[in-house]
Design brief:
This is NAD(P)H quinone oxidoreductase. Keywords: NADP, Oxidoreductase. Pfam families: ADH_N, ADH_zinc_N_2. With 336 residues, the chain is α/β, with parallel strands linked by helices. It has two domains: 180 residues, Medium-chain alcohol dehydrogenases, catalytic domain (Quinone Oxidoreductase, Chain A, domain 1), CATH 3.90.180; 146 residues, Medium-chain alcohol dehydrogenases, catalytic domain (Quinone Oxidoreductase, Chain A, domain 1, Alpha-Beta Complex), CATH 3.90.180.10. Helices cover 33% and strands 25% of the residues. The strands form three sheets. Strands 3, 4, 5, 6, 7, 14 and 15 form a seven-stranded mixed β-sheet that branches. β9, α5 and β10 form a beta-alpha-beta unit. α3 packs across α10 and α7 packs across α8. The longest helix has 15 residues. The radius of gyration is 20 Å and the shape is globular. The termini are close together. 50% of the residues are buried. The structure holds NADP nicotinamide-adenine-dinucleotide phosphate. NADP nicotinamide-adenine-dinucleotide phosphate binds next to α3 and α4.
Length: 336
């Protein structure tokens, strides 16, 4: 089969389309003919040599999500038939013509989604849904979402709308706030380079946003921190008592200082989350909840994935360059 292969650590042009062996489905696994996938920050880190694939995933083929047709069933697999349309997450190898997945992690693609739309769903919607659940977000809560026009961010804004949450957001690119508003964000702030570089100014900007525009004026009940770095500590000052911060991404940096007094006095929770490293049983539970609680909303059109741009697998280098540009709104999709 054809796959996008990381030939050595480096910039996008280290990626090459190569013939590699088609994987063989093991016990209770499916072989899926991938029709679409999408890019994630983790693919960029893996390509640069900073994020090795977990055990069981191919070391040199990136790709954390897939949408496609069941092509063959491994021994003991009985939940699906050949030709069924499925989507889900993988530890790697999604940017190829075939992947193998455990049959209980696969979810049926609703008819309303064509292949590019289906490819844009899994990482963004599963991550956002799982994080809101872990944060125990409830109707009436205010949720602050950083990098709000990212793939995960726009999924979170839509989930917030259907859950009855008030969504506030940040972006460094002012035009992206309009895209987030179109999906239901109540209010957002564009953070200038000067504000982002100055921790007190960043804390003041976030605090003002959530106190002036939150549902109860007391700050954010939930923060989805897709950015990390200085944003994490600054967000503590924008949170309501008993607020919950979910640390989901580290594009602004993996280190920082935290105001422990603020956490203590506010009785705040700071919790990290990652999808890729979860054990099989936990992934099955996460995907069952996604199938039950999110997929019906995608099927009815109450929510829709946001596609920034579609590339073919042959255009993998350009796709990586596009995601790396930070200009994207929503998902960079690959058709296979
Ligand atoms: N924990 C998990 O399991 C998991 C799963 C999926 C994704 N993630 C993480 O979630 C985040 C969003 O993922 P995604 O794929 O949806 O992202 P994405 O679509 O690639 O968007 C990321 C956006 O973040 C903003 N950004 C980039 N560098 C930044 C910086 N230094 N400071 C502030 N903002 C910055 C940019 O938008 P602006 O114009 O707004 O600055 C950029 O477009 C990423 O950090 C990703 O690693 C985590």
């Amino acid at each position: 089969m054809l796959a996008a292969v990381i030939t050595r650590p480096g910039p996008p042009d280290v990626l090459e389309l190569r013939e590699v062996p088609t994987p063989v489905p093991g016990t209770e696994q499916l072989l899926v003919r991938v029709r679409a996938s999408a890019l994630n920050r983790a693919d960029l880190h893996q390509r640069r040599g900073h994020y090795p694939a977990p055990p069981g995933a191919p070391a040199d083929v990136p790709g954390l999500e897939y949408a496609g047709e069941v092509a063959a069933l491994g021994p003991g697999a009985r939940e699906w038939r050949e030709g069924d349309r499925v989507f889900g997450l993988v530890g790697g190898g999604g940017h190829a013509e075939y992947v193998v997945v455990h049959e209980r992690t696969a979810v049926r693609v609703p008819d309303a989604l064509d292949w590019p739309a289906a490819g844009a769903v899994p990482e963004a919607f599963v991550t956002a849904h799982d994080a809101l659940r872990q944060a125990d977000a409830r109707a009436g809560d205010t949720v602050l979402i950083h990098a709000v026009a990212s793939g995960v961010g726009l999924a979170a804004v839509q989930l917030a709308r259907v859950l009855g949450l008030r969504a506030l957001g940040t972006a460094r690119t002012p035009a992206k706030l309009g895209d987030a508003r179109a999906h239901g964000m109540a209010h957002g702030v564009a953070l200038t380079r000067e504000v982002v570089a100055d921790p007190p100014s960043l804390a003041a900007a976030l605090s003002e946003l959530t106190h002036a525009h939150g549902a109860r004026g007391a700050g954010a009940d939930v923060v989805l921190d897709l950015v990390g770095g200085a944003y994490t500590n600054a967000s503590l000052h924008a949170m309501a008592p008993l607020g919950r911060l979910m640390l989901i991404g580290l594009v602004a940096g993996a280190e920082g200082t935290l105001d422990l007094g603020r956490i203590l006095r506010g009785r705040l929770t700071v919790r990290g989350t990652v999808m890729r490293a979860r054990a099989l049983e936990e992934r099955i539970v996460t995907m069952r909840r996604f199938a039950d609680e999110v997929v019906p909303l995608l099927a009815s059109g109450a929510m829709r994935p946001t596609i920034d741009r579609i590339f073919s697998l042959q255009e993998i280098v350009a796709a990586h360059e596009r995601l790396e540009s930070n200009e994207t709104v929503g998902k960079v999709v690959l058709t296979v």
